[in-house]
Amino acid sequence: MKARVNRIAVIALLSVLALAAAALAQTASSPTLDDVLQQLDSNLHRYEAQVPDFFCSEHIVSSQAYAGKRQFSVNDSIFRLQRVTHPGSAATLDESREATAVNGTSVEGKQIQGPAILGGVFSGGLDVVSLSQRSCMSYALEPTLPGEPYVIQFATLPGRHANCLLTEESRGRVFIDPATMQVKRMELIAPHHTILPQTVGVWRITIDYAPVLLDARTFWMPTTIASTAISTFDGNQTVWAFDARYSSYHRLEVTSRILPPSSPATQ
Fold first, then answer.
1. Tens digits of per-residue pLDDT, 172-211?
2. What is the Cα–Cα distance from 172 to 187, expressed in whole angstroms?
C-alpha cells in the first residue's frame, strides 16, 4: 500500500513539473506587448513606404433602415490607392473609387453616393495600434494559448490631442497572426460617434485582412469590411450599414511608348 502511495505521489509530482515546464516554455516564447507593438510598427512603416499604387475590385452593399423602411444600393467599383506627393510635405496614400455598376446596371465615371460610404481603411486603418499612438491609446495584450492569434485590446485615453488618429471615444481589438505578426482582423466600437451633423450614435466596424501579392511582395490587405452606425431618436432607430468585399488586387501601372517620327509619305 505504501509503495502504491509513493508511486501516486511521484506521478503527481511529475505532472506538476510537466505543467510548470510547459508554463515556463510558453512564457519564454510568448512576446510582450512591447515586442508585438514594435513588430506592428515595423510592418506599418514597410506598408507605408513600399506598397505600390494599386487597384482592386470592390463590391459594396450600402443601406439605410428607418421606421420599417430600407433604402439600399449594390455598388461595384474599381478601388484605387495611390501615393501622392505634396510640395513641402510627406507623400500620402490617397483612396479613390470609380463605380462600374449600381444595382446591376453598368455606369461610367460616377462616384458611389451611398446611402453609407466609408473611407480611410487602406490609408490609415492600421495606425490605430502603433507606437505613434501610445500617447493617445491604452493597449493590453491578452493571455495567449499556443497556436492562437495574439490579441491586443485598445481604448482611447482622455485628453486626446491633434496627433491622435481617433478623436472620439473608441475601443476595440486587433487579432495578430503569430506566424507573420500581421494584423488579420480589427474590431472597433465608438459609442458616441458623430454619424452626421447633429446625429450621434453607436458605430461598429470589423475589418478582415489577408495576404496579397503585389509587385512580387506580400502585403496584408482588407478583404472584407463590415460597418454599422445606429442612432436612436424619439424611440426610432436609424441604421446605416456598409458591407464591402475586396478582390483581384493589381499594381496600378502607367505604360507609354515612343513612336518614331512619321515620314512625309505617311503624314
1. 999 999 999 999 999 999 999 999 998 999 999 999 999 9
2. 5
DSSP string across 182-210:
EEEEEEEEEEEEEEETTEEEEEEEEEEEE
CA 116 to chain centre: 18
223-249 as b/e: b if 16+ CB within 10 A: bbbbbbbbbeeeeeebbbbbbbebeeb
Please list the residues that pair with 153 across neighbouring strands.
140, 173
Torsion sign, CA atoms 100, 102, 105, 107: negative
Do residues 99 and 111 make contact, with C-beta atoms less than 8 angstroms apart? yes
CA distances to 51, 67, 70, 136, 194 from 233, rounded to whole Å, are: 43, 11, 17, 31, 14
How confident is the model over 1-39, as pLDDT tens digits?
444 444 544 444 344 334 444 443 344 478 999 999 999
Q: Where are the domains of the chain?
A: 38-246
Q: How far is CA 199 from the centre of its chain?
A: 25
Please provide residue 20's backbone torsions phi and psi, each rounded to the nearest 5 degrees: -65, -40
Cα separation, 47 vs 110, whole angstroms:
29
Query: From CA 167, how far away is CA 52, in angstroms rounded?
Result: 29
Q: Residue 106: which of 81, 85, 75, 143 has the closest Cα?
A: 75
How far apart CA 206 and CA 173 sit, in angstroms, is: 10
Contact 247, 222 (CB under 8 A): no
